Amino acid sequence: MYIADYKKFDVINGKGLRHSLFTSGCTHHCKGCFNAATWNFNYGTPYTKELEDRIIADLNMTDVKIAGLSILGGEPFQNVEVLSPLISRVRSECPGKDIWIWSGYTFEEIVADAHKLKLLSNCDVLIDGKFMLEERNLKLKWRGSNNQRVIHIQESLRAGQAISYE
Predict the structure, then answer these.
(1) What was the pLDDT predicted at 74?
(2) Is the CB of residue 69 less than 8 Å from the CB of residue 100?
(3) Residue 166's pLDDT band (cuts 50, 70, 90)
(4) Is the distance from CB of 127 to CB of 15 less than 8 angstroms?
(5) Is the pTM of this model over 0.70?
């Protein structure tokens, strides 16, 4: 897997002060995508064990309160093999940190795919759905178009249906 970027101290992509990992690779190709460079699976730099260790260390900073990790793309759910171990490490080594993940897939599409569901089930908040230029809304928090939802993952999995964050 390649990553497009890793940003420390991000306040835009999720609630609170966070660190954000931008994966490379996406086949959705949404018209008007703000991050079209990440469609290429080889864009950016290779994901390494050193970067993963750095992310864990950054999440455990003691001098600054970090809320959690945000994973965006590209399309994270097209990089499940690499992201699953990272998310498992965050869960076990970074107590109290939440994980937000963005996807062009809907909640319903993800839960119907056991491979993708494994990744989703270890996260806290999902912003789902393809960006739709004709539904763009610059007033929305954490998403770009009206069709996208901010979903409580654990509540939604228990209920068997998407439950909105807002």
Answers:
(1) 93
(2) yes
(3) low
(4) no
(5) yes
